[in-house]
Amino acid sequence: IPVDPFDLVVFGGTGDLARRKILPALFRRFCAGQMEEGTRIIGAARSDMDDAEYRAFVAEALIEFNGDHSGCEPGTITRFQQILSYVTLDARGDKGWGELAAKMHPGRVRAFYFSVGPSLFGDLALRLHQHGMADHDTRIVVEKPFGRDLASARALNKALADHFDESQIYRIDHYLGKETVQNLMALRFGNMLFEPLWNSHYVDHIQITVAETVGVGGRGDYYDRAGAMRDMVQNHLMQLLCLIAMEPPAKFDPDAVRDEKLKVIRALGEVDPAQIVRGQYLEDEDKPGYLEHVENPKSLTESFIALKLHVINWRWAGTPFYVRTGKRLKARTSEIAVVFKEAPHNIFDQDSGRHRNILTIRLQPNEGIDLDVTIKEPGPGGMRLVDVPLDMTFTEALGPDAEDVPDAYERLIMDVVRGNQTLFMRGDEVEAAWAWTDPIVAAWEEREDKPLSYETGSSGPDEALALMHKDGRKWRDIR
Ligand code: NAD
Fold first, then answer.
1. Domain edges within the chain
2. Which pTM was predicted?
3. Is the complex ipTM higher than 0.95?
C-alpha cells in the first residue's frame, strides 16, 4: 500500500549502515511502488558531496548491497536517484542546517534517521529543534547501541525527550522487524491452540540462540567496550524473550504491546553467576582470535555468552529460559525453541524413546516456524514413534508471494513513516533492560572474570553445553 509523500533525512547517510541496510531497504520499497511521487530522501553527513555525487554513491551501494533486484523495472535505480539529494552538515556545528531546513516540505511527515554514533543524538535533536524541523509530524529513528548502561541510556533518553515526545521517537531493534517475529505474535494471539499450553505447566524450557560465524572484524574498538551481553542480550535477545513470555495485550497497539513487554523485563530474576558462561574465540588458521582483534591483549570482554534466566511470575514460575549468543560459532543461526514437556505417561513400548513437541521459530536462515510432533513411524515395524516437523515456512506456504516479504529494515522504516511504534522499543523498556543487565555485568567486572576460550566453528565453550546438561536438558544443535 503506497504511503503519502514524505521527507526522510538520513543523518550519517554516507556511513556503513546507510550503505548496507538503510538505502537498499528504501530502494526496495521504492521498487515495490510504495513511495508516492514527491517523496524525498536526503542524505546528510560530514563528507563534502553534491547531489550528483551522492546519487552516484548510492547507486554504487545499491549495486554492492542490494543483491538481486531483477524484479524491479529497468531504470528503477535512475528513478530512485531522482528522489535523492544531499546536504553536507555538521551535527556539532551550524554548517548545513539552514540548507536542510529549506529542503523540508511543510505539512508532510518528516522522518530523521539518526544513523550516527549515539554521542551525536543529543546534538541532532537540539539542532532539529533550533532550526524549526521538530514539529508534531516529525519522527526520529535512533539506532543501537542505546547506551551502555542504565545511566547512559537515561542520559540519551533525556537528551531526546528535551526536544521530542516519546510518541515521536523510534528506537530500532531490527530483530523486531523480522517477519517471523511478528508471526510469533500472530501464532500466540491469533490461535486458540497454543495459549492454553503457553505456561510452566506444559513448557519445559525455552531456548534462544543467536549465533554468528563472523568475528568482531573492524568493529573491535566498539565491541570490546560492549561485549555480547551489552551488544546482543540486553536488546535483541531480550526483545525476543519478551515476545515469547509476555501476557496477551488487550489490543495490538504500540503501548498495549510495549506495556506487556516491560512487565516481562521487570519480572526477570537475578542471575546466579554460576549460570553464566562467557567466552572468547581463539585464533583459527589465518583468522585472528578475539584478543588479536581488539586493542587490549588482556581484554576480559566476552564474544560469547550463555545464561539461564527466570521470568518470575505466575505463568513462568519453574520454566527456565536459556539464552546464548556469540561470534565465530558453527553456523549463522537465530532461533527460539519452545520445548514442551513430555507426555506424562508412555503407553507405547519402552524403547519408543523420549518425545517432545518443540515449537521452533527460526529467524535465520530460512525464516519460518515449525512444530515437531510425534507420529507413528510409517511401515510394518510396529508401534514405533518418530518426531516429524510440521513446517510453517512462508516460502512454502505462501508460494511466490513470499519472495516479496520485506526485510526488517524495509518494514521498520515504512512503519516510521506510517507512525506505527509497535515494533520499536520504548524508553522505559530500554531502561528496564539496562537495570537488569547492569548488576550482572558489574559483578563479573568486579571479579575480573576471565572468559573461557572456544574454538572457531564450535558451539561456544563446553561449559555452555554443561549449563543445560546439568539440568538434564540439551541445547539444540547450531546448524
Ligand atoms: P560510520 O562510521 O560508517 O558512519 C558514520 C556517519 O556519521 C558518516 O556518514 C559520517 O559522515 C557521519 N558523521 C559523523 N560525525 C558527524 C558529524 N559531526 N556531523 C554529521 N555527520 C557525522 O558508522 P555506521 O557503521 O554507519 O554506524 C552508524 C550508527 O549505527 C552507529 O551508532 C552504529 O553503532 C550504529 N549501528 C551500525 C551498524 C552497522 O552494521 N554498521 C549496525 C547497528 C548499529
1. 6-143, 176-406+425-469
2. 0.95
3. yes
